[in-house]
Design a protein that fits this description.
Length: about 100
């Protein structure tokens, strides 16, 4: 009976050793993943900061484009009104 217990104890020790090896492997993987995550967080933070800088630099450009668009629409409206006025004057002169 002692021999059976010795064999069972040996099998248990082998299983425990295998479990320990797997846990060690998992620990190594977790350390690597943790480093990768820290690097990813750093890159994300830097990207967010660059995005804020770009947005702040683009806002004046967007304002300028809006202003120019408004000015062009105003000149377009003036051209249409001028065209209408000229047409009305020419029609009035035709019927005189």
């Amino acid at each position: 009976m002692s021999e059976k217990l010795d064999k069972l104890e040996q099998k248990l020790d082998e299983k425990l050793d295998k479990i320990h090896e797997k846990l060690s492997s998992i620990d190594v993987t977790l350390v690597k993943q943790n480093k990768d995550l820290e690097y990813h967080i750093l890159r994300t933070t830097l990207a967010e900061e660059h995005l804020k800088i770009l947005e702040s630099e683009i806002k004046p450009i967007q304002k300028h484009v809006t202003q120019i668009s408004g000015v062009l629409k105003f000149f377009g409206l003036l051209a249409v009104l001028g065209g209408i006025a000229k047409a009305v004057i020419e029609v009035a002169e035709f019927f005189r």
